[in-house]
Sequence to fold (509 residues):
Amino acid sequence: MSSIMVSRIRQKQIAQLVASGKRLDGRGLTDYREIKIEPGIIEKAEGSALAHIGKTEVLAGVKIELGEPFTDRPNEGALTVNSEFVPLASPEFEAGPPGEESIELARIVDRGIRESKAIELENLCIFPGKKVFVVFIDAYVLNHDGNLIDTAGLAALAAILNTKVFNYEAKDDEVKFLPGFTQLPVVNYPIPITFADINGKLVADPGLDEEEVMDARLTLTFEKTGKVCAMQKGGRGTFTKEQMLDAVRIGQQKAEEIRKTVV
Amino acid sequence: MSQSARKLVDENGIRTDGRKADEMRPMKITVGVLSNADGSAYIEQGKNKILAAVYGPREVHPRHLALPDRALLRCRYHMASFSVEERKSPAPSRRELELSKVIREALEPTVFLEQFPRTSVDLFVEVLQADGGTRCAGVTVASLALADAGIPMRDLVVACASGKIDGHIVLDLNDIEDKEGQADIPVAFMPNLNAITLLQMDGLLTIEEFEKALNLAIEGCKRIYALQKETLKAKYVTAREEEQVE
Fold:
């Protein structure tokens, strides 16, 4: 994210601190800021949650609609993840079609949920190949203070955990909705963990000013048994193999801790 | 990715296209294939057929995008509508926009962009036929197109995927293995600088499996690197011979 210019002096300060194992806000290199989840705050959505990591806020809403399955998955409900960088969240965001940062973020969150098989999509099929439930997850960035990916990932997970699906009756190609809801079947809990590489050191949960200074970014998503289910490197810099392996080991532990705040 | 009834690896450890676990698909690379571009290259890797072209350093359009301290590197990864089984709409998909970004970021570390402030280097990757692993082949061929354009670089970037199919960690997944396998890890690497410039993963892997797969992908990258260098050198040998004949 090339956003607010941090003054050169501050850049230098951040880099020097990180080199000595410290950070501007007093955190250790692998510490997260405070995480807070507020589930179910949008009544009209089938599921929702507002996630905070420090001052970063992302609101995820889930809508469920009838639709057609993907052609290569005729027996499964469909899942689509989208993200919106709303202009009120940062002076750097502009209205308009989603930019590549927004698309990348949505696809990272999507991969975490899809590859961990968090949602039992087979249970959302009504008429194979014809009619299924489509789960739309939209992550709205409300305030940008760094690490949008993890915040959006937590918001999306917390939102599907309180998502309801309409009760229905399926008869001769007709779907009739019945009163009441059932819980969306969520069986896995993917947690994304993002590191910034600042002068060769891994820094977890980078804040906005740290993102300005970082050379590269690495996101690892862990599912409930501690396996990796998605990864994405971003940014103009590089990683060594040893850094990657360190990140996976530290990330696995972090994910376990953070999962407790959501599930 | 889902488990399928089809076996991707047989009892002898042989894959659907006859390869062993650590074997790559046959690969053919040529440079300088397009006369208009400042640099270009073409790769065939299995059934993948990909063209890359570089224009620049040149004036930036629109001008306000120009950077005061370095060149702007732009990348467009695009798949031809006939490159896949079912016709793909030629409008850029979200996948293509994401891949354009990761390919650009895979190549940015190698280019001395600071030598060309206020200009742009535009890179076009056109997938004519896709058979799994196009982003990796795209990075490999794009880096050759940059070199062919004479743009100063720290190293060649080379990419290769590894993954997990039927419980085996294998190199260079083809389309079926990518779709029906259990994990796919595209990796781009600068062998001389020992730096990873692209890494993505989807699927399910333990930490041990990831380490093994990452090592295998890097090993694959090193093999392709040799071929990349050979291809570049061959072009200049041919050029010199032509000059002598004249």
Observations:
- Chain B touches chain A at residues 1, 86, 94-95, 97-98, 100-102, 105, 108-109, 179, 185, 190, 193-207, 210-211, 214-215, 218 (CB under 8 Å).
